UniProtKB/TrEMBL annotation, chain A:
<feature type="transmembrane region" description="Helical">
    <location>
        <begin position="288"/>
        <end position="305"/>
    </location>
</feature>
<dbReference type="Pfam" id="PF02653">
    <property type="entry name" value="BPD_transp_2"/>
</dbReference>
<keyword id="KW-1003">Cell membrane</keyword>
<keyword id="KW-0812">Transmembrane</keyword>
<feature type="transmembrane region" description="Helical">
    <location>
        <begin position="257"/>
        <end position="276"/>
    </location>
</feature>
<dbReference type="GO" id="GO:0015658">
    <property type="term" value="F:branched-chain amino acid transmembrane transporter activity"/>
</dbReference>
<keyword id="KW-0472">Membrane</keyword>
<dbReference type="InterPro" id="IPR017778">
    <property type="entry name" value="ABC_transptr_urea_perm_UrtC"/>
</dbReference>
<protein>
    <submittedName>
        <fullName>Urea ABC transporter permease subunit UrtC</fullName>
    </submittedName>
</protein>
TrEMBL record, chain B:
<keyword id="KW-0732">Signal</keyword>
<dbReference type="InterPro" id="IPR017777">
    <property type="entry name" value="ABC_urea-bd_UrtA"/>
</dbReference>
<dbReference type="InterPro" id="IPR028082">
    <property type="entry name" value="Peripla_BP_I"/>
</dbReference>
<protein>
    <submittedName>
        <fullName>Urea ABC transporter substrate-binding protein</fullName>
    </submittedName>
</protein>
<feature type="signal peptide">
    <location>
        <begin position="1"/>
        <end position="24"/>
    </location>
</feature>
<dbReference type="Pfam" id="PF13433">
    <property type="entry name" value="Peripla_BP_5"/>
</dbReference>
Length: 367, 414
């Protein structure tokens, strides 16, 4: 494999990914496990965005839950309205809302095109607004992280307070159909899985293009030395803004796909803790590599399921131990494992110039 | 590079098209399918039952006691020979105080373990999250906690109180005591908001004045402002739907503001024996609670339950209403299965109406139409020893009425 050109290797990688996701997984897994994998892949989509913004751009995005939630709620609102049928209100609104008619801000979501566009554009718009304020004022590091967390907390409080129109702590549940397809049907659940897997691969391709473009170089430069980039005549604020907005769009799309896959969106999925969990997945996988965040997000989510099924009483300790071990012994994340093993086998301790850029970055992070 | 990009794009379109082609045979909404429904595995000499409670996260402190009570019932039933000659094999899962996790674990219990019934859930949000899972798979859930009513799923049995068995009797009691005004304090989530909606409708019809309504975020410990407002309102009583830790802060603040149980009693619907212990009796002594069961409830069935529980889990562990309801739910399921002569979900449901059990709280009967149970309402007073003693009860079990159809004042609620 080492003799192949980088381009062929990328091709092979994507081919392998497609075979695993589209052929192997559906053939080997039961419907229930496949629907869990669909959920993990949604987290992986969020992770790809975090990998770009944090791994490449150095923006510690601790509030991705907000964008995940915006996308998820936009999708769930449309599906709830579609379930209720034209002119009717969603079931929970009649229970808790005491409203005579649909609130004005719900109405446009009845239109599928508007709702689908909103799942991606709404998070991007919010990220653009927040990002342009914050990056222009050169807020960074811990301050940016705290601000992201505050936004996540505020959004949860807002959603819970407006029980009549948002479902409160319950969130939006009991979603029956997905653009006319009955979600109870295992065949349709499979369709949802294929869509999610397809979107993940497409976004990976897009992110790879971005990372290897001139913009990608600039983003890494901004991460490593913002002032030098500024002296070279670029505006680092704009460079960071693009990564932040793209990551938000991906999180929104992931939230939108999560809704048909799992059938629920609630404040419990978008607050401070889930936002941190997204970042933990990326850290475990390796934030700077292209595939690291995907592997990490899937591994962490899978481990959570597997450990809690095997050890319902003590799994939280095991999960914590796993995080500590990875951070202590594999600071570059799971993605750096391959490089480490190979280096040891080749007795080449200083292999810092491999063919593709991903590994260089992983080693930088590890150092 | 451009050519390469285009090829890749083509590959993705092919993959997506394939995915859509696969989906083409899926059923559309409203096409009325009878698919779904996983049969429980009852072929061996044991039958699996699912236990779905939060063992981690904020709800663990309450839900672990419910898990213990379910385990006690399962062990007692096994010691007495099982159900239809088969021993019960409990399969525990951790809901993690997280609603989507509850849905995932419910599906796992039904599809992978193929359990005959699931016992558990505490918060309304977790119940709402698992409800579609049970309905889709036509599997049974027994839900053991008092809740806000306005729900009736064909695959859930509700063994805790609905509003007309807890909140309405609580209000009736205040009215009988001659109270003319109340102040509503609650945590900010579904149960308190819905409960307060019902309380306001009741108040309007019964000449009770609601002088204020305040919500604190779940887990909040900042009650200075709310208690000052309560004090300034000069209400004659407080109706408290706060949950968990917030009660500690609220009652401390309440006492330090000079408000007393004698002058302005607080009726709580989420404080049971376990919570009294953690809040501290010095703050709660003399305050009122509304439930269907207390550790002090008299009767041979309760003596046996309390003794068995303490023997297994420790003499300092109190029993409470949700624990009792969970314990009862296992026995009710057993009685239903035995009446049906089968573990089949539809047959068990069909046999439900009229099934009775001599529970620690007294005789309970399943109402087949609503799948709730007839329960005796009890108002209790918290004593200096941390136990709650009954000061009033409804005399006989109250028929469940989750949508409050029998109450004219509630006609606008659902």
């Amino acid at each position: 494999m080492t003799n192949l050109s980088p381009r062929t290797r990328v091709w092979l990688g994507f081919g392998l990914g497609a075979v695993v996701l589209f052929a192997a997984a559906p053939a080997l897994l039961t419907d229930f496990r496949l629907s869990l994998l669909a959920k993990y892949l949604c987290f992986a989509i969020v992770a790809v965005g975090i990998g770009l913004a944090w791994g490449r751009g150095g923006l510690l995005t601790l509030g991705q839950g907000v964008f995940f939630g915006l996308g998820g709620y936009a999708m769930a609102m449309h599906l709830k309205l579609a379930d209720a049928g034209e002119g009717n209100m969603p079931d929970f609104m009649e229970l808790y809302g005491q409203l005579d008619e649909l609130p004005a801000w719900w109405a446009p979501f009845a239109n599928p095109v508007f709702a689908l566009a909103a799942t991606v554009l709404l998070p991007m718009l919010v990220a653009f607004g927040l990002g342009s304020l914050v990056f222009r004022r050169r807020v960074r590091g811990a301050y940016f992280a705290i601000l992201s967390q505050a936004l996540a907390a505020a959004m949860v409080i807002l959603l819970i307070g407006q029980q009549g129109t948002t479902g409160g702590t319950n969130g939006l549940t009991d979603i029956e159909g997905f653009f006319g397809y009955d979600l109870d049907d295992p065949v349709n659940q499979r369709m949802v899985y294929f869509i999610i897997a397809g979107v993940l691969l497409a976004l990976l391709a897009l992110t790879r293009q971005l990372m290897h473009s001139r913009y990608g170089e600039l983003l890494v430069a901004v991460r490593d030395s913002e002032n030098r980039v500024r002296f070279l005549g670029y505006n680092p604020a704009n460079v960071k803004l693009v990564a932040y907005v793209v990551a938000a769009g991906m999180a929104g799309l992931a939230g939108a796909l999560f809704v048909p896959a799992v059938g629920i969106i609630s404040p419990a999925l978008i607050g401070i803790v889930p936002s941190i969990e997204f970042v933990i997945g990326v850290a475990v996988g390796g934030r700077a590599a292209l595939l690291g965040p995907v592997l990490g997000a899937v591994a962490v989510a899978w481990a959570k399921t597997a450990l809690s099924e095997r050890f319902p009483g003590t799994w939280t300790y095991l999960q914590g131990a796993m995080f500590v071990l990875v951070v202590a012994f594999l600071p570059g994340g799971l993605a750096s494992l391959w490089g480490m093993v190979r280096r040891r086998r080749e007795r080449q301790p200083d292999a810092t110039v491999p063919a593709d850029g991903d590994r260089v970055l992983v080693q930088e992070v590890a150092a | 590079m451009l050519r390469f990009h285009r090829r890749r794009l083509a590959a993705f379109s092919v993959a997506l098209a394939a995915a859509l082609a696969v989906s083409a045979c899926g059923s559309k909404t409203g096409e009325g399918d009878d698919t779904g429904g996983v049969t429980a595995d009852t072929s061996g000499d044991t039958v699996k039952v699912g236990l779905l409670n939060s063992l981690s996260g904020t709800m663990a402190i309450s839900e672990v006691t419910v898990r213990d009570a379910i385990m006690l019932a399962v062990e007692e039933i096994n010691a007495a020979g099982g159900v239809l000659g088969k021993k019960l094999a409990p399969v525990g899962e951790d809901g993690g105080s997280d609603w989507p996790t509850f849905a995932e674990k419910a599906e796992k219990l039904i599809k992978v373990d193929r359990v005959a019934a699931v016992f558990g859930c505490w918060t309304s949000a977790s119940r709402k999250a698992v409800k579609p899972v049970f309905e889709e798979n036509k599997a049974l859930l027994f839900y053991p906690v008092q809740y806000e009513g306005l729900e009736q799923s064909p695959y859930i049995f509700y063994t805790g109180a609905t509003t007309n068995q807890q909140i309405v009797p609580g209000l009736d009691y205040l009215k009988a005591q001659g109270k003319k005004s109340v102040y509503l304090v609650g945590s900010d989530y579904v149960f308190p908001r819905t409960a307060n909606k019902i309380i306001k409708a009741y108040a309007e019809a019964n000449g009770l004045k609601v002088l204020g309504e305040d919500y604190a975020p779940l887990g909040s410990t900042e009650f200075g402002t709310i208690v000052n407002k309560v004090k300034a309102s000069k209400a004659e009583a407080v109706f408290n739907t706060l949950n968990g830790d917030s009660n500690v802060a609220f009652f401390k603040e309440y006492k330090s503001a000079g408000l007393t149980a004698a002058a302005m009693p607080v009726v709580s619907v989420s404080i049971a024996e376990e919570e009294v212990k953690s809040i501290g009796t010095q703050y709660l002594s003399g305050q009122l609670t509304a439930w269907n069961y207390y550790q002090t409830t008299t009767g041979a069935a309760n003596d046996k339950f309390v003794k068995a529980y303490k023997a297994k889990f420790g003499a300092d562990k109190p029993t409470s209403d949700p624990m009792e309801a969970a314990y009862v739910s296992v026995y009710l399921w057993k009685a239903m299965v035995e009446k049906a002569g089968s573990f089949d979900v539809e047959k068990v449901k069909g046999a439900a109406d009229g099934v009775t059990f001599e529970a620690p709280e007294g005789l309970v009967t399943i109402d087949g139409a609503t799948q709730h149970i007839h329960k005796t309402a009890r108002i209790g007073k918290i004593g200096d020893d941390g136990l709650i003693t009954e000061v009033w009860n409804s005399g006989s079990p109250v028929k469940p009425d989750p949508y409050l159809k029998g109450y004219p004042w509630a006609s606008g609620l659902s």
